[in-house]
Amino acid sequence: MRVPGLANKFKVALTVGLAAWTIAACSVLPSDMEERTILTDQPVDRGQMVAMINAYRQQNGLPEIRHDPELDAVSQKMARHIAGRDSMDTWAHSAFGLSQRLDKAGYANYAAAENLGAGYADLSAAFRGWQGSEGHNRNLLNSYVTRVGIARTNRNTGKWRNFWVMTLARPHADGRPVVVR
């Protein structure tokens, strides 16, 4: 037995049901489509970095320092740490934090310092930023350090996008610093 209009009512109910399901499914899509944070370590021209810091130190009557790949590795871990947080505000950026990270890396040293930077598009901009900051500039001109490492990590989301870390140190291999009074 055929009921007039039943087929049409079924089609309407099916269409409404499918539309409701589609709308419900679409409401899930925006959160699925949110951009995930991706951290990417970026190459840094270490020759340029060493030339910049040594020219600056020479202008200020200080001896040259040399590049140290072990400090690059320490710097890279910190750059990833701050990039992951999208912030430089972390306990790891302290004298104690740096000392712990160097100890963990097996980097015995007599002196160490660290400069962080965020948002700088290139090495020259980061370096100028450090020169313009009293504490960072003091690290660049630290007479006790003999080695330097640097790293950069980019973040695809967030406020800063570019994170820089320069680690300066004097390893035991370079001998105790001489205090000049």
Describe the structure using short key phrases.
181 residues; five-stranded mixed beta sheet; 47% helix; CAP_dom; CAP_sf; CAP domain-containing protein; 19% strand; alpha+beta; globular
Structural overview:
The termini are far apart. The radius of gyration is 27 Å and the shape is globular. It is built from 6 helices and 5 strands, in the order αβαβααβααββ. The protein is α+β, with helices and mostly antiparallel strands. Helices cover 47% and strands 19% of the residues. Strand 4 and strand 5 form a beta hairpin. Strands 1, 2, 3, 4 and 5 form a 5-stranded mixed β-sheet that branches.
Instruction: State which percent range the strand residues make up.
Output: 15-25%
Work out the radius of gyration: 27 Å
Overall mean pLDDT: 85
Query: What kind of sheet is the major sheet?
Result: 5 strands, mixed
Low-pLDDT residue spans: 16-30
Rough shape? Answer: globular
Number of strands: 5
Helix content: 40-55%
Q: Specify the structural class.
A: alpha+beta
Question: Termini, distance in Å?
Answer: 110 Å
The total of helices stands at 6
Order of helices and strands: HEHEHHEHHEE
Domain SCP: 51-166
Protein name: CAP domain-containing protein
Pfam families: CAP
InterPro entries: CAP_dom (IPR014044), CAP_sf (IPR035940)
